[in-house]
TrEMBL record:
Keywords: Signal. Residues 25-49 are annotated as: Disordered. The keyword Signal applies. This is TIGR02301 family protein. NCBIfam families: TIGR02301 family protein. Residues 25-35 have a biased composition (Low complexity). It comes from Sinorhizobium fredii (strain NBRC 101917 / NGR234). Residues 1-20 form the signal peptide.
Amino acid sequence: MTVAPLIFRILLAGTALANAAGAAAQEASPAPQETEVAAPPPGEDKPPPYEQRLIRLAEILGSVHYLRNLCLNEPQDSWRRSMQELIDKETADEPKRRERMTAAFNRGYRTFASVYTACTEPATLAEERYRAEGATLASEIVARFGN
């Protein structure tokens, strides 16, 4: 399985959006949170070494998907589609990993859905910060684990 090409495409999209947000959003971006990945149950393959970062990226994509659509007149589905493509490529024969990544995306989405019901300045700032964090994280994954 090769994660680099798909994450690289997500990185390019995230970088373009992060650049549009400006350097201020990148400087103010929150520290990446390490999402703990439990050891696989007996009989399940050991997850790849970048699994924690990938789970965090899934959470970020869910958050960005919600926040971007909150402030747009016409909602877009590009972040959800990117996540679905990543899940399909990364977890083809691993239903438990697929479940964890889907849950992470949904957790990111629901976290902000429970806080923001209207487009506000803090919602816009949060979206910019998460895009910047996602771009940084995707870049790190590709640089360290890409083929």
